[in-house]
Amino acid sequence: MLRNIFMFVAISFSACYVQADTLYENLGGQAGIANIVDGFLEEISYDREIYPFFAKSNIKRVRSKLEEQFCHLSSGPCVYTGDDMKSVHTGMNIDEAHFNRVVELLQTAMTKADIDFPTQNKLLQKLAPMRADMLHR
Ligand code: HEM
Prior knowledge:
Number of strands: 0
Mean pLDDT: 91
Shape: globular
Largest sheet: none
Strand content: under 5%
Distance between the termini: 60 Å
CATH class: Mainly Alpha
Structural class: mainly alpha
CATH superfamily: Globins
CATH architecture: Orthogonal Bundle
Bound molecules: protoporphyrin IX containing FE
Radius of gyration: 18 Å
């Protein structure tokens, strides 16, 4: 019994130790987010379905706006200064398959950046409500 209690306390303590307080911290702060966004754009650049959407875009701008957006959404110390998701993605005719593929590319980038799955899911949950602003526009 005492041994079980000890195990429980030890496991709880180590779980607290590994998980930081905010999503921003669990993503690795500013440097971690910059690394995720770089990886995300790299995955996009390899993808035959998705890359054509970005072929004429200013990737430097997209990189910096995505960094701001992920930082802001994860409660980091940033303000998002980009355009709203509806106006950015209008005219692209994004469908469900495109959207799902982009989410997969982000997941791949986060996995390669060693972000744990609960943290990945928390960021994806923050992005999910934007889906309706992007599809079929
Ligand atoms: C979770 C989903 C997504 C998020 C959070 C997201 C976020 C963003 C952000 C923050 C920007 C920069 C905005 C600015 O320049 O002010 C952007 C631009 C862009 N996004 Fe998305 N996006 C998502 C999904 C998609 C999908 C599914 C596509 C196409 C398949 C796409 C294509 C683009 C393109 C082409 C641009 C650059 C637009 C330009 O050149 O002006 N995005 N996105």
